[in-house]
Amino acid sequence: AQxxxxxxxxxxxxxxxxxxxxxxxxxxxxxxYLFWYKQPPSRQMILVIRQEAYKQQNATxxxxxxxxxxxxxxxxxxxxxSQLGDTAMYFCAxxxxxxxxxxxxxxxxxxxx
Amino acid sequence: DTEVTQxxxxxxxxxxxxxxxxxxxxxxxxxxxxxxxxxxxxxxxMFVYSYEKLSINESVPSRFSPECPNSSLLNLHLHAxxxxxxxxxxxxxxxxxxxxxxxxxGTRLTVT
Lengths: 113, 112
Known about the structure:
The complex is a heterodimer of chains A (113) and B (112). Chain A is mainly beta. Chain A has no helices and 12 strands. In chain A, the strands form 3 sheets. In chain A, strands 2, 5, 6, 10, 11 and 12 form a 6-stranded mixed beta sheet that branches. In chain A, strands 3-9-8-7 form a 4-stranded antiparallel beta sheet, with no helix packed on it. In chain A, strand 10 and strand 11 form a beta hairpin. Chain A starts with a strand and ends with a strand. Chain B is mostly beta strands and 112 residues long. Chain B is built from no helices and 11 strands. In chain B, the strands form 2 sheets. In chain B, strands 2, 4, 5, 6, 9, 10 and 11 form a 7-stranded mixed beta sheet that branches. In chain B, a hairpin with a 2-residue loop joins strand 5 and strand 6 (53-57).
């Protein structure tokens, strides 16, 4: 089975600052996908960003970017210019083609005004 | 349109009741999922439907009964639940299995 580890249960960041959430995973597969999902206090899970393992270029979506290190099996999320609306639980997820999602345990991020 | 809708938003039921949760998507997705989520925990997969057929049942107790009437609808029928079944129930859909999933807002279920 695949495992996804988020070693930071809770983090906080000052508004407008940058924060990085870490995620590592364990797999013997070569082709897979990685995702970051955000779940604000209203509880709807929202897809933040995705990364295909075969792509060397790190994915970017506006203020959100990833640092994908395939050899190290690391997939961190960087949030720039943090906003109050970024306060949420963040889940890292691993997906192997033809199989199900594996979620990490989550990181609770609080943006402090 | 990346919307998955779920009804009701909140549900309180006794242990002898029968109720149903509903999920709907109009994105043409052919895979739909039910998850159970406890507070501050990741979602736990319960069921997967692929092309309206049940493809994964993660050893869920029979008091939870899924149904996929068509490609846009997914139901979860509940009967004789236990207090420990109280949780947020999330529905998700994806183009087919193995693509990113889009989640609904969830149904907050309380079993008394």
